[in-house]
Design goal:
- Residues 11-187 form the Metallo-beta-lactamase domain.
- The longest helix is centred in the last third of the chain and has 12 residues, at 164-175.
- This protein has a single domain, classed as Ribonuclease Z/Hydroxyacylglutathione hydrolase-like (Metallo-beta-lactamase, Chain A, 4-Layer Sandwich).
- By secondary structure, it is an alpha/beta fold.
- It is globular, with a radius of gyration of 16 Å.
- The protein is built from six helices and 14 strands.
């Protein structure tokens, strides 16, 4: 089961993955108690908090979610420092100065790792370009793409740490994936690889 929540001022999509009493949060932003309520309603326990990249609109609630669920935060190694440097996580764009408190456990992962949370297995695909450590996370036939690709568009590549040429390489990875994969982006509506190959100008 996948439950999408967009209850935050950034219009960031957060996802709750639930299977056999286990839950994983992907890019959770907003009120942790709302997520806890959803997990409880589905008789699931949160085993992991995973981020597709380290921009502020995705990590703004990281401390609150750690406090609520007491599980480590997980992110690609290339974006780990974005938890601690406002100039890298771009919180200044939102008139904030975000830096994660020291002592909060952060686990990093690499390309092609499989993250295991009970029966939920997330395959990591490193797709840099929007940020150095952007990833897509595959769970069975679903792909959580963060800000790498959206319905009809892609993530911006004019931010500090972004790279349009590297983004093109990442898009090539997506083009080679199963066209039947459902895409669940960091903003906007869901899609499929097949639909984006047909309709997204950046995937042609």
């Amino acid at each position: 089961m996948i439950i999408k929540k967009t209850i935050n001022p950034f219009t960031t999509n957060s996802y709750i993955l639930i299977q056999d009493g286990h839950g994983v949060l992907v890019d959770p932003v907003g009120d942790p108690e709302e997520f806890a309520k959803t997990l409880e309603e589905n008789q699931a326990k949160c085993l992991g908090i995973v981020y597709t990249h380290g921009h502020y609109d995705h990590i703004a609630s990281a401390y609150a979610f750690y406090q609520q669920f007491q599980v480590p935060l997980q992110i690609h190694s290339a974006d780990r420092e974005m938890f601690y440097f406002p100039e890298k996580n771009l919180s200044m764009y939102f008139s904030r100065n975000f830096s994660l408190e020291e002592g909060i456990p952060v686990i990093t992962f690499e390309d092609l790792e499989v993250l295991t949370f009970g029966g939920i297995l997330l395959q990591v695909y490193h797709t840099p370009g929007h940020t150095p450590g952007s990833v897509c996370l595959q769970w069975e036939s679903d792909l959580f793409t963060g800000d790498t690709i959206f319905e009809g568009s892609i993530g911006r590549t004019d931010f500090p740490g972004s790279d349009p040429k590297i983004m093109q390489s990442s898009l090539q990875k997506l083009k080679a994936m199963d066209p039947g994969l459902a895409i669940h982006p960091g903003h906007g509506d869901s899609s499929t690889i097949e639909e984006e190959l047909l309709e997204n100008p950046y995937m042609r």
